[in-house]
Design goal:
alpha/beta; two-stranded parallel sheet; 15 strands; about 50% helix; about 10% strand; elongated; disordered C terminus
Length: about 525
Amino acid sequence: MAIDDDQSKTCVVLGGRSFIGRCLVVRLLKLGNWIVRVADSAQSLQLDPSESKYDSPLNRAFSTGRASYAHVDLRHKSTIINAIEGSEVVFYMDDIDSCNHDFYFGYSIIVRGVKNVVNACRRCKVKRLIYNSTADVVFDNSHDIISGNETLLYSSKFKNLYCELKSQAEAHVLLANDIDGLLTCALRPSNVFGPGDKFLLPSLIEVAKSGWAKFIIGSDQTISDFTYVENVAHALVCAEVALASRMFIVSGKVFFITNFEPARSWQFALCMLEGLGYYRPIIKLPAVVVRLIVFLIKWMHSNMNFRDLKHVSVHNVIQLMSHTRTYNCSAAERHIEYSPIVSLDDGITLTVKSFTHLAKDLPSTRLGDLIEQSKMEELLGSGEVADILLWRDERRSFLCFLGVGFLYYWFCVCERRIISSTAYLLLLLMVVLSGYARLSPKVYGCSRMSPRVSVCSISRTIPCFEVSEMCMRSSVRTVANIWNAVGHVARSLAEGCSLNLSFQVAHRELLPHVTGIRVGVFVYFVLRL
């Protein structure tokens, strides 16, 4: 096939063998008006089995001369110049593997590499540079982002080293705009997934294979924006067209890129995991508890010089499921005329088909038929106790967990006697309530009585700790009866009574008062479990 140089433009895809780079190369070749130069760190091009087929776009392009390969080391500007010489456009993207949890190596590839790319583009008179960044450069791993736009500032606390280095590289690309005739812009896709993904779906699969497979980590109400990889490649092409025709609006700008379909994070994950044959988790586990467990595992592994990457996958899933992150893509839709070409559902289907080699072998029963209540849910039912034990109400469950932990520490770990422990606990409770009662008027803004403030308004604002005399007498009488009954049982045992008779006495003396305190529910669940 002959190439018409008058109609075709030459471009370079730096990082052309990365996750997004592969998809971009194929899309550029399908458009038919590009001569594509694939540049990557490998010494020679190694095609995958799917790319080696005769009818594949990449194989045909190499055989006809519409595509070529160049080795590039981003740490050396001379190799970059050799790769981009004579090109009109440079698409620059790096992979998360380039960071490799090593600051020096990541900095030399991502930050120093982008400086070398910018300098090489200016020297070779490249007209346009489009940088693929990430939406996580504005996420601080603490606060939710709801419909965020391009006015968001860079985060002051990044979720990992890769995002921190990407923010520096993106800022350098934008600062280089309109210098020596070079026009630049950057795209920020959110949670990119698709065939060839090495980060998002592999992390979910690793968690599904591990002991965390039965747990929903974090809240199932968080919402995130996801972007299919082909839509990212389409957005990069749209940015190049807009940068050439509307450079004053697009140059030096950043644009968020998503699928325009925010989805619940766990629902998105479960759709892909179920498609690969993994069971649907049922039990909810708060992210703060899992984060603490992962921290302890990492600490143990570091002290034992043992390397295990499972905790890394769990950490990635926690970060995805813990916070809401949605972005407003109206600027990209308006200025670079971007709109998704693959829907979210179709993207999930295509991704699942490409990862069939990681599917779990299951019986013929589909996972959709296995979504039923667990035995624990059937046993506990739907009452308040079940809500607490099954972490349906995370706040109440966490408070109860702290309360039980405090009581265990107070009565068991401190090695005090039961009477002294109870006395200390009551004394501490009295001090706290007394201090709260003294501070509450100041807290509620009523430290000084004003003649204009009515007694009724004060009674509505200041908390009241008054207990009726009848209720107090009843409570004291109940405690005294229980104390006397325990003493009676202990005396019977000391006098040599049989154990059976002592149980009968305990049942007759203690049971009415114990049920009055309502601990029968606790005994019932202990016996059932």
